[in-house]
Amino acid sequence: MSDEVQDFGAFVATRATTLLRVAYLACGDRAEAEDLLQTALERTYRNWDRVRRDSPEPYVRRVIVNAAISRARRRAILNIIPMRVPPETAARSTDVDLRHVLMTALRGLPPRQRAVIVLRYWEDLSETQTAEILGCTVGTVKSQASKAMAKLRTALGETSVEGVIGNARA
Hints:
The protein has helices at about 5-25, 30-45, 50, 55-80, 95-105, 110-120, 125-135, 140-155, 160-170. It has about 170 residues and is mainly alpha-helical. The model has no long low-confidence stretch (mean pLDDT about 80). This is SigE family RNA polymerase sigma factor.
C-alpha cells in the first residue's frame, strides 16, 4: 500500500466520527449524513495529493456543507421529503426530547444558516474559519448566524439557544 493511501486511511480513521457528526447536523438525517460523508471522502481522495499538504479536515467540511446545501436545494425544487431515522443509541428521555426539539428547529433553517450554526457552535470554529469553509465573507457568517439564532430563539421559545446547543452537544 502506498504512503498516500495509508495517509488517507489514517485521516479517515481519526476524523470520520467528527465528520459524520458535521454531516448529520448539516442535513438532519443519519442515512443522508453517511451519504454526504461518503461523497466528501470520495472527492477528497481524488484530490488527496493537493489536499493533504494543507489541513484536509476543513476541505472535507466544506465539501460536506456544499453537498448538503445542494441536496437541500434539489429537494426543495423537487419537493422531496426525506425519511427521518431515529437514533440507534439509547439516551435519557430528557436528552432525546432536547435533541429532537433542537434537530427539528435546525431542520427548519435554510441550508446556509444551518451550516453556519453547525460550524460555529457545534464544531466551535471561528467566524474566519467558517467563512473559509463556506466560501463567503466573515460579515456573511455573522449575518447568517444572527438570522439563524433569531429563528432558533423563536422556534425554541425564549430559552437560551446557546444553552440548548451546548447541552445537545454533550
